[in-house]
User: Fold Nucleolar protein 16 from Rhabdornis inornatus.
Amino acid sequence: MPKAKGKSRRHKYSYNLNRKRLYRSARRRAAPRIACSHIRHAWDPHKSVAQNLAEMGLAEDPNKAIPIPKKLLGMEVESGRQQPGKKLVRKPYVVNEMELEASLPEKKSNTLSRDLIDYVRYMIQNHGENYKEMARDEKNYYQDTPKQIKRKINVYKNFYPEEYKNFIASLKPEKMEVQ
Assistant:
């Protein structure tokens, strides 16, 4: 079959276009991506990265901020540089907010999906501790082996110990009524 007439014309390479100049100007305009919200709010786009970080009391290069002493044969050699005077920090609140945020305890983000919780509770409710029976159950859609099911139950026990204890306690009266 013949090609469409316009298709080959669309993909022709333009040799006259200077792509280096286009790429360079696009990079120059792009502002740095800042992840920390405290730094982002205090950032001045009219100043350089080094000037912005110096105003906030942050180091641009950690190797220059805290120099590593040179050791020669187990003895420290003093460098000719003296400690420069402290630079003026105009925005100390940025460092203070970052330290405060870092000192907060981390939230526990261990959670299980609702489907997995329902699956484990169903298996325990119908089969108790018999993992081989659980593996043969028709609700075992993923065809988990007895060891895999046991591992899932142990994960549920570790993530939600109080909920597991209450669930087991609620099962005991049901079993007494059946017998």
The mean pLDDT is 81. The radius of gyration is 32 Å. The longest strand covers residues 71-72.
